[in-house]
Amino acid sequence: MTKLAKDLLNWFETHGRKNFPWQSNPPNVYHIWVSEVMLQQTQVITATGYFNRFLKTFPDIEALANAKEDKVMAEWAGLGYYSRALNLHKAAKIITSKYGGIFPKSFEEIVSLPGIGPSTAGAILSLGSNIKAPILDGNVKRVLSRYHRVEGHYSKGSVTKELWKLAVLHTPSTKNAKYTQAIMDLGATTCTPKNPNCESCPISSHCSACLNNEQEIFPHKRQKMLSRPERNTAFLIFKNEKQEVFLKRRPSQGIWGGLWSFEECQDKESIIAQKIKQHNTNATIQRRLEKFKHGFTHYDLWISPVLIDSPGGSGNYYKKAGLSKGVPAPVKKIIHSLE
User: Which residues are the active-site residues?
Assistant: First the structure.
């Protein structure tokens, strides 16, 4: 067992986080799987509330597998990165049909499930079954980058490869669940991106970045883009005489995959007019709402809502009062403004 692993395990007994709702004795692999998928792109404080609500609706793999996709997406709405929910649902169906509802225990089987990469598979194995399996989430990357002064940003394949080697090196043969939780906890609470608390860090005496006073240099930063890309779109809000609004299901791939949203097109008058005519020849623009910006990880989306009278509109028209779930955040914002 390496010095880093020994120090982390000792530290974990006193300072580790042990009261998350997905932590139990014995561990529940389904809970760990759901939590790890939620935590892929979400802070712990946000994921905790969603986890509790999600488990109340889908208490086990069978319940998730048998649920309708719309229901799953509705419970995920607001958490973002909606492909995670779609993959959870798909994987639950596979586990139910192929493995009899029992979560598989081999790395190869787990990593073959939709939405599960090597690090998530490692976390599920170590936290759920105490099996030796390395992980490499954002917190672990930061800890190892500083401890070994790994040159380069881990968006580069060569850097990630080096970090995986180090992750394997330090993963012990025993106490895997505690070690995995410990190194994630250290990155989340002590070896933080800014202002790391090296004075209370259990591995600082052997951390190369700390010893060289380079904690703020490692891990190396990704080269910033000169400007953040922007895109524009128009939301066409068709409303009939019953005050119902039209929503359509978005493709499973891409932003807001699988959620219900307004008709959407380029923010050009000619294209908007064509879309309106295609939808309802009797529809007319009532007014434009104020344009607003919605930020994604890699770009900003400017949304121009267009309110449209659609007499006789039927089909996927819904009462505004029941549309708080299963829709993207900007759609929810517009619906609330209409109320």
Answer: 36
